[in-house]
Amino acid sequence: EKGGYPHFMIKEIFEQPKTLADSMRGRVNVDENNITLAGFIDNKEKFLNAKRIIITACGTSWHSALIGKYAIEEFARIPVEVEYSSEFRYRKPVIHEDDIVIAISQSGETADTLAAVELAKSKGAFIFGICNVVGSSIPRNTHSGCYTHAGPEIGVASTKAFTAQVTVLTMLAMMIGKEKGTLSQEDYLKIVYELARIPEKIGVILKQDSTIAEFAKTFTYAQNFIYLGRGYNFPVALEGALKLKEISYIHAEGYPAAEMKHGPIALISQEMPVVVIATSAGMYEKVVSNIQEIKARKGRIISIVTDGDEVVSNLSDHIISIPDTEECLVPLLAAIPLQLLAYHIAVVKGCDVDQPRNLAKSVTVE
Ligand code: F6R
């Protein structure tokens, strides 16, 4: 059932070219230069008139929510708030009848996210679910939604469900933006074209698996890791750090790269591995100067760069290069090497990657 792979997690990482194609199937049509998302079309007026969108989720799904915020705000110009379900449900959140609340959940069973859905529904908001497990509790309790179609995810650490969530959120942001006219036709077409190429580009990145496995061995000594990114890549840094914590039990923190100088840079020494997402699409020069600050303090730099990069490559101890794409789509590519890095570090450390200690696949208790 693991299809020849030693663990479900690595099988699921390698499935991503297919699962993302499945997420886009019948939705992205490059020949007609179009995206159709039934969940959006059925509720078009609600999305076009929304004054605000609140996204509620936990864990990895909360990270995809953050990427969704960047895309919806950029393309649809609707303010988006991203909430941890557990905080949202227990405060007295302000929820208006013309708010849209998007609940993101792989399992569709996370207790706090389900409770957040019920609370928002009782306040009259329109609730839209982005879930993977068909027929699970959250989709049954929302007004409408969109399945991610990543297929069953068995490994406790979420991988293919995350990239499928980001894909659906990106398609949703593009559709709202196109209909509202806040996303130009030219940009829309460029992103549709690039989105359709993401599965094959992930295939190319996966070919570096053995290189990543090799240098992962160098880092099993580490007690701590820092992950940095800016813009769309900031939530990817958070997600990379979460993957490492969950399965290798190495403490890791993700930060927006520019926040380093406000405190965390004090942690940098030659012992500290720092993973930096430094792709050409997305504030490259700014990230370069952040890397120089770390280099000056002798941090060990592992960079995710765009093919052909020289500047960051010269500053780094290890690099993983990924194909170029549109800025909003970089998370779909940059997440892959971070999943592989966490996986291989955990495997070399002898950890049970599919069943990490203290974790359950679906958190149905609060
Ligand atoms: C991380 C992970 C958890 C889940 C979180 C939410 O790898 O698996 O952080 O993302 O428990 O679960 P869902 O998406 O099922 O609501």
From TrEMBL:
Domain named SIS: residues: 43-182, 215-356
Annotated Gene Ontology cellular component terms: cytosol
Enzyme Commission code(s) on record: 2.6.1.16
Catalysed reactions, semicolon-separated: D-fructose 6-phosphate + L-glutamine = D-glucosamine 6-phosphate + L-glutamate
Subcellular location: Cytoplasm
Organism domain of life: Bacteria
GO BP: any one term: fructose 6-phosphate metabolic process
Record-level Gene Ontology MF annotations: carbohydrate derivative binding; glutamine-fructose-6-phosphate transaminase (isomerizing) activity
Keywords associated with the record: Aminotransferase, Cytoplasm, Glutamine amidotransferase, Repeat, Transferase
Complex and partners: Homodimer.
Free-text function comment from the UniProt entry: Catalyzes the first step in hexosamine metabolism, converting fructose-6P into glucosamine-6P using glutamine as a nitrogen source.
Protein name: Glutamine--fructose-6-phosphate aminotransferase [isomerizing]
Range of the intact protein held here: 248 to 613 of 613
